Amino acid sequence: MQRQSLETVVLKSKLIDMGAPETVLGLAMDPPLKSDIHNAILQLKELGGLLNTVNGEFVLNDGDMTFIGKVMAHLPVDIRVSRLIVLGHTFSVVDEAVIIGAALSVQGVFSEHYNREMTTYATKLAWANGTGSDLIALLTAYKVYQERVRQNQREFDHRWAERCGIQLRMMHEVVELVQEINHRLAYFNIQPIPAPYAGVMNEYERCIILKVVFAGAFYPNFAVYGENDADSEKETFRITNGRNPCNTVILQGLPSKHIGQLYRKSIKEIFWNFLERSTKIDVSFDNSEKVYVTFTPSRSDIDSQLGAYLTEYQDNHDVSGNVLVEVYKAVKYGQLNRGLKLNVLNPGKAQDYALDHGVAERTSGEFQWKKQEKMNRDYVVYPRKNYIDGKLTHFVHLHKFFILPREEAQDEDRIRTLLNSSANLESVRKEQLKVGMMVAAQRQFGNNLYFCRARVIDNDFSQPQKVEVFFIDFGNTANLSMACIRLIRQGLHANDCLVEQLPPRAIECRLACIAPTAISAIRGRWTEETIRRFTNKIPVNSKVRADVYAFVDGIAYVTLNHGYHSLQLDGLWLQLEKVVRRTRGEYSPLGSEVISGLSDVIFDHDRRMACELLKHPYILDDVQIDAIVKPQEAEVNAPPENICDKQLSLKGPTSPLTANLFSLTKSASMKNCRIERNSVNSVLLDNNYQDYHQKMLVATHIKKSGNGDLLLYQTTVMPNIPGLMALLSLIFCPTAEFCRDSDNSRFISVLTGLGSKPGTKIPMFEEHDMQIPLDIKLDHDDIECINQLRYSMSSLLLLRNGQDVPELENHARYKLQQKIRDLTLKKFPPKPFVWNQCDVKPTELLQISDLHNGASIFPFLTSLKLDPMATEEQTERLNKSCKELYEIISINRIQKDGVKCLLCDAYLNGVIQVRLHVFTKLHQDREAEIGFIKQKY
Hints:
Elements: H1 6-15, H2 21-25, H3 34-47, E1 53-54, E2 57-58, H4 67-74, H5 79-90, H6 94-105, H7 117-128, H8 134-150, H9 157-164, H10 168-185, H11 203-217, E3 222-225, H12 230-239, E4 248-252, H13 264-272, E5 280-285, E6 290-296, H14 325-335, E7 340-344, H15 347-356, E8 360-363, E9 366-369, E10 371-372, E11 387-397, E12 400-405, H16 406-419, E13 425-426, E14 438-445, E15 448-458, E16 466-470, E17 477-481, E18 485-488, E19 493-494, E20 497-498, E21 507-511, E22 514-516, H17 528-537, E23 543-552, E24 555-562, H18 569-575, E25 579-581, H19 598-614, H20 622-629, E26 632-633, E27 646-654, E28 673-675, E29 695-704, E30 710-717, H21 724-732, E31 735-740, E32 747-753, E33 770-773, H22 780-796, E34 845-846, E35 863-864, H23 872-891, E36 899-901, E37 906-908, H24 911-918, H25 921-930
Parallel strand pairs: 21-24, 28-30
Antiparallel strand pairs: 1-2, 3-29, 4-6, 4-27, 5-6, 7-27, 8-9, 10-26, 11-12, 11-23, 12-21, 13-18, 14-15, 14-18, 15-16, 16-17, 19-20, 22-25, 23-24, 29-30, 31-32, 32-33, 34-35, 36-37
Helix pairs in contact: 1-4, 4-5, 5-6, 5-11, 6-8, 6-10, 7-8, 21-22, 23-24
């Protein structure tokens, strides 16, 4: 009895039907403590193994056994793993649930080697395949191993296991346990749906369904992060000094007096210890102790299609979202606290070393590092008007495509004419080509080939006749044979500028206000289907007109019009349900491009509007031009160690995107949460930091560390869907209580848990109660949908007369993906974690009788009536508040103590915050509810 968990012992005592568990276990020679038995019963009630009632009567320390409870009692695994398998059966992913459950029950499937933590971490990232889930990593490893067995590749198992970080003996145990579990499940008729009746799920849907099952199985082991606002986003860009946090990490401890530029190569060597040597690393400084290390996708100095981190074209799916995998690995390396050492010269000797090697100079007595520009800044192409008329030359995805403006087409023709004259070209050998070099390369135009300007982005000597190039005037890449490449004659000019120094004629663009949905693209990347639909609508080489909202860091934020129909594509893609609309404030980094913060985008937009109003030309400043021409600082080999004067210890690498976790349960509400160091999520970065709603993470179990922190084990990052935390909690909780705002017009939070003892406010299981603020608009339609799903699950798991297991209704699993609603303001109730706190009249309760006579594992939730949004007098007051916000935007001035949006009950402290707020979909939806009509100011 002591070899099993107390919850399992309680269930087995129920099977023998000799009375309440406390009575049966009290007969043991060494009985458990009554308090432990009580807690075990509460755990089982929370997980659905026991009902709250015995023969229809409420009993605190006992309950009738459910179908889930019977499965739990018969399986040789933890009760939460048993619940995982039953929910997997309910949602038609029982095979995957059994494999994951068996792998969780066998410790040490993945190898853990001392001093090889970076290799282990990289291997786990690969197994997780961008899903952010330790459980899916286990599933993937098992499937790959079984495929090797099926293909009779067992003779190299040990070599494969060592390379892939698998403990082969543990994997054999998982295989045996899967067989044992399936054998026992056959008694309950739990098995996969036959093929003719099984619904077809693609990879994205299956991954989401699995994560929903994880949430249901391990409720309430939830944690949240990413509760951002405009101020925290500003702080992110302040920490990186305006650099893109999605591809930048920070080292600290190198004072500017030591001239950090001397040690660029030494700093790069630190990162090449755990990254591929082909990774492009830029090291920059800002006259502080910080060192900024920026990564560019491998093989691409130009951000080619093959290096575009937002599409399915990429083979590497190690991480999801917009943050580069190199950032994750760098932060992991910083967590290991290896103590980074850097040998440096004294400041005076450092200056002399730089001057002697010709990489620095003194100008008017001031020491300056030399810079060089490969492009002529006087010929930079950018949208001088608020629109671009031109031709779509290349399309990667909806956040990366290229347009050749009509006024630049003549220059491109002139360059092409020059390059297709044999007198201006020279033959070249492969060993002469270096990455970054400008060449002439053949490009297809209809049925003809013409030489165009291109930059070498990869020259792999393992392929003697192949070179990858990027056509800078069109935006596409190509793998070409050496016969298609020529050197450009030195001194060749076009428009009084060297052809090699003339900036690209095409403009890189991205569609504004849209991003991939978490449902259609589980890794946050554009799907091939979405890209295909776009190119079918607007094929390459079509004439387009792009309305420019802003131009920042060389990228134009646009909406596209095509042909004569003035089609705005963000609306089109919303109809296709492949994208989610972003607020006008969410323009900054959604890709691997280096883009500044929101304030830069808004500032550029305001300047464009002012120039258009005053009929002044729009001209880029030097900072914006630098972002396009990218001047390079001279590099030099670091001083030899034998002449260095001292050794500095660098701290990091770190990232400002590192997420802070916290739990919403009562027992964990005041404790710090950390993820266990061997988890694939041990580096948790908020890769959608401009999305201000909470993100969610699920752990299989939580332990308390020696310092009082909570350690989360076997974690899974949930899809980035607004309100998912609240919806999953409502779907899988034993019961819930809704809290309304002071006007009784909307729900602001829910309290989930086992509820209170009948007729009292005393909670039954206070430690696991969760107070969840609502960041979605939850109404009665949503609650009805949740109740339908709970009813379907209860019906599926209800033991009827003569049945060992209920039959599965195949449509139930689709309910979950249909009711994600708009964002709404989060609020906490007056008294968190208190049941029956709302003074509600019986007529205000929307209560539904249990159709299974109290035997439902997931009973209906009782909702409350909501009053109309606003009276006529309130509507007038809200309209006045909205008008005030738009007046603040028009005069670009705000009072010292800020302003309050009465419609959303939100305080705004600056003009930029006001501008962002009025463009949020939440605010605009509420404007529509009160009938507010915008006026021109």
